[in-house]
Amino acid sequence: MSLMNRRRALQLLAALGTTGLAAGCGFGTDTADEAEPGSPIKIGLIVPGSGPNKVVGDEITNGFQLFLALNDGQLGGHPVTLVPAEEGDTAKTGQAAVDRLLKEGVLALTGVVSSVVMSGIRDAVEQARVPLIGSNASPISLQSVVYIWRTSYVLNEPGEALGQYLRQTLDASSRIAIFGTQGQSSRDVIDGLRKGYEQGGRRLTEDPIFTPDYPNPGKGVYSGPITKALGRHPDAVFCHYSGAQAVQFIKQLYAQGYRGPIYAPGFLTEGTVLSQLDDGEKGEERALIQECGIETALNYSADLNNTANRVFASAYRKAHNASPTTFAMASYDAAQVLDKAIRLVGGNPTPQQVNLALGKIGQVDSPRGAWQFNQPRTPQQKWYLRKVQLDGRLLSNVVISELATLG
Q1: Which residue, among 312, 313, 340, 324, has the nearest Cα to 76 in the 3D structure?
Q2: Cβ neighbours of residue 369 under 8 Å, at least 6 residues apart?
Q3: 379-391 and 294-298 as β-strands: parallel, antiparallel, unpaired?
Q4: CA gyration radius for the chain?
Q5: Helix, strand, or coil here: 118?
Q6: Residue 88's closest CA among 110, 66, 116, 62?
Q7: pLDDT tens per residue across all 407 residues of the chain
Q8: Which of 10, 35, 7 is nearest to 343 (CA)?
Q9: For the chain, what is the largest distance between any 2 Cα atoms, rounded to a whole number of angstroms?
């Protein structure tokens, strides 16, 4: 973030306290020494507007809009119109979103929550030669792309970071029960766990248990698989769930009598999950979480102490009355890298020029800490170990240490 943008950010933070985020794109500053804005541009935002992934889509929208609010509604000196399109949950619905946005004449695309959608639109994006800066979905299988960049992570990385940590933390004889949803995402995460853990003769002895990908799981839906796993007396549980699935899995795991540590990618405790598990000072679930421990690996935490995060997290809290998640942060960074690339091009940018410039932006000063794109067009970034602890009176994800730099 430039010095001028930092000054604007501080002004916005003050404005947000009384007028809200809507004022962010038009608050008064002395701009006499700045160049006139460039030609207007359109950016296509592909997110789900309904279904179980809507909460992630909302976070992605919030993150991108916040960057625009902190930068006078511009990217690279050009006024921006953000054009949303419904992602859906299939390759067909994703393709329809891409087709509509291309007809709108967008300079670039961003968003995409579902790995199924991301894989399904790959060929269309590459053939259109319009850059897509994905801010969530990033399957391992997405290789050898030219126009698809990601500001999130590759799905095996949180598993790999935790696998390295567990190899150093757990006894070699430890039994780890492994759970995840059916589908490629959990398989990617568990492949990463194996890569990080199975070194020096270590082996994961338990076969993973894959459960149906319930949009809104009810009470008891995980009881059977949990009972089966607990019958083998595991020393630890590793799982890959998020949102409503995470809430129900943790509740049912404790209800079935498990009293050991839980390890997972940080999606397990992102968003509103902890508030749904927090049953107050005298609650059993809060006590069990504190006693048994939930530790997660993620590329971001809202309590990271760096200048970029202090500006981002403070503005996000003022705008939305909630702490930002990794999903919002990755979308904020998607806007940031587009800002850098478009500024490098200058004049009247074309999609192809912006795509070339994305490879030249170098290090990104991000709320997660500094990172840069690697050759596969994904971030080379730090992964953090977070533990669920009380922060004041509320359960929060608190960074304990750095785990690894991957990518």
Answers
A1: 340
A2: 304, 306, 381, 382
A3: antiparallel
A4: 21
A5: helix
A6: 116
A7: 444 454 455 444 444 443 333 333 333 333 333 446 789 999 999 999 998 889 999 999 999 999 999 999 999 999 999 999 999 999 999 999 999 999 999 999 999 999 999 999 999 999 999 999 999 999 999 989 999 999 999 999 999 999 999 999 999 999 999 999 998 899 999 999 999 999 989 999 999 999 999 888 999 999 999 999 999 999 999 999 999 999 999 999 999 999 999 999 999 999 889 999 988 777 888 899 999 999 999 999 999 999 999 999 999 999 999 999 999 999 999 999 999 999 999 889 999 999 999 999 999 999 999 999 999 999 999 999 999 998 888 899 999 999 999 98
A8: 35
A9: 71
User: How far is residue 205's CA from residue 309's CA, in Å, rounded to a whole number?
Assistant: 40
Cα 233 from Cα 249, distance rounded (Å) = 18
Token reading at 181: 């949803």
**Strand, helix or coil at 278?**
coil
Give the amino acid at 351. P
Amino acid at 57: G
Tokens representing residue 176 in the block? 């780890």
